[in-house]
Design a protein that fits this description.
Layout (H helix, E strand, L loop, with lengths): L4 H18 L9 E2 L2 H15 L4 H16 L1 H15 L4 H14 L9 E5 L2 E9 L2 E5 L5 H14 L3 E5 L5 H17 L7 E4 L4 H9 L3 E7 L2 H8 L4 E5 L5 E4 L5 H13 L11 E5 H13 L2 E3 L3 H11 E2 L3 E2 L8 H6 L11 E5 L5 H4 L6 E7 L2 H11 L6 E5 L3 H11 L3 E4 L19 E2 L5 E2 L6 E9 L8
Helix pairs in contact: 3-5, 3-6, 3-7, 4-5, 4-7, 5-6, 10-11, 15-16
Bound molecules: nicotinamide-adenine-dinucleotide.
The site of nicotinamide-adenine-dinucleotide has 25 residues, from helix 8 and helix 9.
Length: about 475
């Protein structure tokens, strides 16, 4: 038989070239894809891979995320860039918030297995992954949300597709790339955390409808929370708040004033948990305001200027004007012709309950103070001003009966007593942190187990060792 070597060479070359064209050497994009479909498919593949990795591996990936975020140059860069890109908040606070999200979001230790043993054997209930999770992040905490959600979701064995707010896409993409690079170095599957090059409402809608996305988590305002809850998928909604703080006549007024100004001015009032209106018993209101001023508050008394502020920072007194969200007190005052130094952290003014500054979630360091006759009226008003969000409230009082009454009546996810609002997310208060606080759907302060399915595994007549 004659062998045509030339022909064989030709065939081999053709086959090799076909193989090369069919699967060109894929360049790793560190989790950033052109289309949402590509991102979700990559995430799905990564999740299947992650299931083959051990729990110890997952914890190493969590530690890797912490390491990337807490590296000084990364922490400073992302905090600076988030503040610049979104035009909201202050770098120094973003550094605190990003580090907090990295260090105090729980890892796999959150997934405590339930076991039931007895005459009929042993039953285990384990926290297992949902699979691919679609997570929508707000402009107010863009990187913080990517950090705490990534830690919790990966610890739970999931992968995550992010929909960052378009106004903070640059920093979100930068962070996601950095995290994936570190995860790859640690031997994790590629694309545990993904997003698209151009985040948009259209892409978020594709993500919400995609069959491979098994759970949706919305951290944002009422619109997006409603949107995820209407998809028919398992959804976690971490929605808007309007946290009131009540001060009664038994409180340590000097401490209350300091705590309220510190909480209210934290990242220029961007956190959804921050003090948004103060309701004070008349008897101590003057002394409270006096002490607020000693701690960095600037009081506006002229009704004409208060009205100018309303016109400036709200849309018809109904919604916040986005250009002023997360801006400093100094900046806002300068726009109504009042020039003050950086030591002014919060603008205060006295107001009635129906004032827009009381009713609207401004997310700016403007704090209205409403006087009431007694603590019971204060609690009733606080419940009304919170609008049933069941998000966060604060109270300064030494009266245990009234503290208990407010906690019961306001039914918020977080209730801080005698401290600043941020004590409720683990800053100077006990407990872990998260920037996804799920009031509407009830998971509360989310952590790894919030993003897991509970699955029962039953062994009949075995592994119960208490009796012979
Ligand atoms: P936002 O609701 O405007 O946006 C949140 C996210 O949802 C963004 O990524 C945005 O692009 C997306 N989005 C909004 N509407 C959408 C729609 N119709 N379709 C698709 N995507 C949509 O909120 P924001 O201004 O970025 O953040 C501030 C709000 O978020 C405040 O109300 C604040 O209280 C809330 N928030 C809540 C928590 C919490 O843990 N509960 C945490 C942070 C912020």
């Amino acid at each position: 038989m004659n062998i045509d070597v030339e022909l064989i060479e030709k065939v081999v070359k053709k086959v090799l070239s076909d193989v090369e064209t069919a699967s060109p050497c894929e360049e790793y994009s560190y989790g950033i894809f052109e289309t949402m479909d590509q991102a979700i498919e990559a995430s799905h593949k990564a999740q299947k891979e992650l299931m083959k990795h051990s729990m110890a591996d997952r914890q190493r990936y969590v530690e890797g995320i912490r390491e990337v975020v807490c590296k000084k140059e990364n922490l400073e860069y992302m905090s600076q860039r988030a503040a610049e890109e979104s035009g909201m908040g202050e770098v120094e606070y973003k550094i605190i918030k990003n580090r907090l999200a990295a260090m105090k979001s729980p890892g796999i230790e959150d997934l405590v297995t339930e076991a039931l043993s007895g005459d009929d054997g042993l039953t285990l209930v384990e926290y297992c992954p949902f699979g691919v999770i679609g997570a929508i992040a707000p402009t107010t905490n863009p990187t913080e949300t990517v950090i705490c959600n990534s830690i919790a979701m990966i610890a739970g064995g999931n992968t995550v597709v992010f929909s960052p707010h378009p106004r903070s896409k640059g920093v979100s993409i930068w962070l996601i790339k950095k995290l994936n690079a570190k995860l790859e170095e640690l031997g994790a599957p590629r694309n545990l955390i993904v997003t698209v090059q151009e985040p948009s409402i259209e892409n978020t809608n594709i993500m919400m409808q995609h069959p491979l996305v098994r759970m949706l988590v919305a951290t944002g305002g009422p619109g997006i929370v409603k949107a995820v809850m209407s998809t028919g998928k398992k959804a976690i909604g971490a929605g808007a708040g309007n946290p009131p703080v009540v001060v009664d006549e038994t409180a340590d007024i000097e401490k209350a004033a300091k705590d309220i100004i510190n909480g209210c001015s934290f990242d220029n009032n961007l956190p959804c948990i921050a003090e948004k209106e103060c309701i004070a018993v008349d008897q101590i209101a003057d002394y409270l305001i006096f002490n607020m001023k000693n701690n960095g508050a600037y009081e506006v008394k002229d009704p004409a200027i208060i009205q100018q502020l309303v016109d400036l920072v709200t849309i018809d007194g109904k919604k916040p004007q986005v250009d002023f969200v997360g801006k400093s007190a100094q900046y806002i005052l300068s726009k109504v012709g009042i020039n003050v130094g950086k030591e002014v952290k919060v603008i205060i003014c006295e107001a009635n309950e129906d004032h827009p500054f009381v009713q609207v979630e401004l997310m700016m360091p403007i704090l209205p103070v409403v006087r009431v006759a007694n603590v019971d009226d204060a609690i009733d008003m606080a419940v009304r001003c919170e609008h049933g969000n069941r998000h966060t409230a604060m109270m300064h009082s030494k009266n245990v009966e009234k503290l208990t009454k407010m906690a019961k009546e306001i039914e918020t996810t977080i209730f801080v007593k005698n401290g600043p609002s941020y004590a409720g997310i683990g800053v100077g208060g006990m407990g872990y942190t998260t920037f996804t606080i799920a009031g509407p759907t009830g998971e509360g302060l989310t952590s790894a187990k919030s993003f897991c399915r509970k699955r029962r595994c039953v062994l009949q007549d075995g592994l119960h060792i208490r009796m012979k």
